[in-house]
Fold this protein.
Amino acid sequence: MTQENINLNKINKDKAEPRREIAESDFTTDVPSENKLAKHAIQVHKFGGSSLATAECIKRVLEIIRANCQLNDIVVVSANGKTTDSLFALHDLVERTIAEQKIQTSDEITQLITALAKAQEKLITDLLNANNTKQLLLRLSKDIEQLSHWLAGDIVKYRNDILAFGEVWSARLLSALLNEQVCPSNSIDSRDFLVIDNEQSCVVDTAKSAAQLRQRRQFGKLAVITGYISKDSRGNSCTLGRNGSDYSATIIASLVAAGNVTLWTDVDGIYSADPRVVPNARKLHRLPNGVAKELGRLGNPVLHAKTLLPLINPLSEHHTHLHVASSFDPKVIGTEIGKFGQIAKQELSVTYLNDLLLAQSVSFTGKTAERAKAEFSPLCMDNQKGFMVITQEQQKSLSQWLASHDVEITFKPVSIIATVGHRVAERGDIKARFKRSLKTAKPIDILGSDNDHSVIAILPETCSIELLNSVHHEMTKDVRHIGLVVAGMGNIGERFLELLPAQLNKVYALENLHLVGLLSSKKALINNDGIDVAQASKLFAQEAQNYDTEQLISWLTQNPYDELIVVDITPSEDFSLLYEQMFSLGIHVIGANKWAASSSTKHFNNLVNTADKNNSLWLGNTTVGAGLPINYAIEDLRQSGDSISELSGIFSGTLSWLFETYDGTTKFSELLLNALAQGITEPDPREDLSGRDVQRKLLILARKAGFELALEDIDCQNLVPEALQSLSTHDFLARANELDEYFSSALSDAKSKGACIRYVARFQYDDATGVTAKVSLEVLPQTDAFANLTPCDNIFQISSHWYQDNPLIIRGPGAGRDVTAGGLHSDLVKICQQLAHKQHQVRIKGIN
């Protein structure tokens, strides 16, 4: 797999420098030199009509610009709200009035003009100060006068000039508002620089347009440019088609070699189907250029058919990335379109178009078929069967073209539905599944596109919403990309990664899991296109980079996955403090780290509530008992309706080994040093002997059992004498023999009673006395369940309403890299199984 690693020192790889807000220092009358500004990668931000529909929307856009733009960037705007629709309606009404010679509609025309003017007046007065309001109202009045004059004159000649007013008003208003509140700005009418050959092919005169744009831009001012409109080589106003502002934005981006284009709209990205009619559509975080282009061609509601054309130049070394984001929820990561690896190429989506025509003619076979295809760019075509599918708007021109060849043609109303994805037409499994999903629709034909990025079904009837939802479910039900980040590259982390390749191959629940991040305390390897699991440790050693917490959170916030799971195998309290931010981002956590689960009651409850609020899963089976299913057992009992009254056992593998082995024949200090040499204890054995680790484990289990408890509520016997507690590790080990007298005496007393000593954790709850909890050295009879363990084993005893007379006991190895790594994999499978059934309902803030 190609490695495209993310540099955490430059999270946004498409930007030449980190973005900064427009600062007070930018408000200057001195015009910065072009060379000074050129060192910053230019970005283009395009705002659609819904993003500029109301005063509230425009204020939101102002904040987006404040947070994301530099002075050398470019803002492209659509007309406010439905202004262009109103201009179309006005134009069409006048055209019909002339054709039908209806005098009585003049009042209706006047009413429409008045409504149009009042809508603009309201935006101006709601947003601008008195002086700017006066100036813009005066200019608006002149425009309305000009509009009325054109409507009364040669309406065919001035059609595009009439339709251009919406963008002109929008750019003028936003620029004035920016000048008032944010930064110096100037509005530019794109007809003053953008030259195309004609409205049909829209081929841009790149050299002339780029030169004229350079002349119009005022350095030191943020340019606000009209979308949708341009001029032809004869100077006539042209439009780029409905929703053509997106196309304008990418044309302008290509003229200035922009590093990035962001389309701000009412939807926070591209989805696997139109989210307005398919509630379970998935956001597609990353789309390859070719797939996005095919989606736009086949009717995706967000992508204009020609939007990507200016950005895809195989001969150019410059690459512009395209983002789609929501102006209604700008903090939510959108969709990025560009060049990506294999994971992004696995995405599937379903799109449809109604009100189409299937045109059949002998001219659509043989050599003339290629000429017909070049002339009309049909949605799909079969030159063996002699048909093509076109839009209704193409019917007249196609009929005229064939009439010149003296050839007959038949038209039949049809619709299409298509599955779109990288090279899907070459994948037999996708084509077979698509065909099965359409068995009740009885398609006329199913064929692959020329670029192989779609499989298209031609339907004899309108594609219903029910059919669209059904086909979408069948094509995408198993598709959910889950990113995996492993934090902690120590002994257990290495073993977890060693087990991962085999797990991915044999566990179905992990089918869509991708390793995308590896972290140590100082270095990180992040790759959105996936890290080769078979070489994970080697790649980390070779390619990991230094990072800090801010950079890590920035990447986590912008990760391109449906779900993200962080496996925390660190002992770090600092890393556990990131859990709250992770949960707020909807990230799931598997923690072997005990700090968060045993933190203060307030912090712990806040973590639980934040995770619940954001549907984040938090599993920590390995925080206690390594891979033993103690957490699962407690959770299962509680969910089944049982109530737990007592938890007890030996929770430390180190203390289990020490007291199972200590029989008095060897001094306790010698045994301790031997355990240290074998790696059984912590590097400082006082970490084990203090009992703090056992105390935290008991707290974790008590909370899991449903009790609100704090660490200070658990009495803890420290087995290290006070005189040895504050020494350095070296000095403590040198004086370890001072432990011998205490443990020798304790063991002798126990033996005199036919008993033994064990370090035991106990939690009890009684309705009358409440909670008691402690961890301490106890004297136990040799017949006790805790007395005869294999050294290093843990044992857990649960008493409950169901297990009163005969407590439930779980026993087994409580430490070790294999069992702990296995326990982490158990949690991973459980989370992925739960996520497989998770449903995402799309919420579109600008529409819902």
